[in-house]
Amino acid sequence: xKRTIIVSILALLIVGCExxxxxxxxxxxxxxxxxxxxxxxxxxxxxxxxxxxxxxxIEYNTLPQSxxxxxxxxxxxxxxxxxxxxxxxxxxGSGDDRAGDKIFSALVPMSSQYVSGExxxxxxxxxxxxxxxxxxxxxxxxxxxxxxxxxxxxxxVAPDTxxxxxxxxxxxxxxxxxxxxxxxxxxxxxxxxxPDGTSNNAALLMYDDGNFAxxxxxxxxxxxxxxxxxVYSSNQKGEYTFTFTAEDRAKTKSIPVTKKIVIR
Length: 264
Fold this sequence. Notes:
Layout: E1 3-9, E2 12-20, E3 32-44, E4 51-60, E5 66-73, E6 77-78, E7 84-86, E8 103-109, E9 117-126, E10 132-143, E11 152-157, E12 161-162, E13 167-177, E14 185-193, E15 204-205, H1 212-215, E16 224-232, E17 238-248, E18 257-263
Parallel strand pairs: 3-10, 12-18
Antiparallel strand pairs: 1-2, 2-3, 3-4, 4-8, 5-6, 5-7, 5-9, 9-10, 11-13, 13-16, 14-15, 14-17, 17-18
């Protein structure tokens, strides 16, 4: 039976349901069978208590060696450094309501420092022989409680004029800060408009990866985004407009910064 519930774990606001489960990710031996798994649509952080309860109901004829999960943030970044173990021991500390009911539970602290967006949980079981099976995968939206603010661009460095004989290159850098944290910044890019007013509107990415040879970036993760631009003798001559924008994971954009560069 499928039912919808609103769960409140202290001050962490959770909207979700218990989901009947008939299709495990891996083919399971007869000794394990997934009956249901919690599914949250949205988790909203509150500083009073950040614990989110995750649980999975497994039928078995042989007691599992362990049941655990991994948590992934947007961008497929693993949140936990070691497996998050779920228990069926009736311990309030793990969020388990009753020992021996074959519902394995864990309380997982969620942080305001985690980026808002879509998260993924993956559940596993291991047997006494050391075999590990993936049981289920679920996704939910996490709201870290911070009002989303747009990124901010500043300190643009670019030439005013480039003289081209055959092929010339020049470097551009811009500082990009996201008030919600660097992890919330999705991309920094620019669009070029030619002297005749035309543009293909391609978003050309800038990089903060420390790869000077490829992107002209001197130091990784210093909030300075860089790019090396090549100009050819066949390019139109005249005044080009470069429009720079930063965008966060919610697709909120910075105020654009423009730069006029004359190609001769």
